[in-house]
Amino acid sequence: MTTPRETLVAYLRDAYAMEQEALSILDRQIQRAGSQPHLADRLRRHRDETEHQAERLEAALHRMGADTSALKTMGAKLSGFVQAALTGMADDEVVKDLMAAYTYEQWEAVNYRIIAVVAEEAGEPEVRRLAEESLAEELAMAEWLDGQVAPVTRAYLARSGGNEGVLTA
């Protein structure tokens, strides 16, 4: 049976790997968002936030006398590369990237919620605070992405010539 502290270290390592994967995905999404400059700009800002989130996780691990897992980090980076490459092969890559980004933000958010609960149970209020800070950033990005669904989809349809019969009320 593991203690809350051991569980917290494992979850922090998982989250660090998750953020490394996110950086790989964001790098490719930024490159492909050229037709949507506002999207590329927001993705760049979120990439900066993601780097800070990874730094927070690393600091939390060091605070607990642990460090990141090189194996998990390497696997996550590879996974991020594959995911970004797969959506990049689609004709509607910017729409697919938007769907993937929104889904990923929700996944990151639930991870930070879980870390906050485990940190509280482990008696680590500072780690909980760091998790909640990252959680707020992930939720803000998810909300922003949600607001981009209609405009990005409409822009894709307009570029592809597939907007016949599409209502743009």
TrEMBL record:
Key words, A-Z: Coiled coil
Record's Gene3D superfamilies? 1.20.1260.10
- Coiled coil: present as a keyword of the record? yes
| Coiled coil listed as a keyword | yes
Query: Which spans of this chain does the record mark as coiled coil?
Result: 40-67
Pfam families registered for this protein in UniProt: DUF892 (PF05974)
Q: What is this protein called?
A: Ferritin-like domain-containing protein
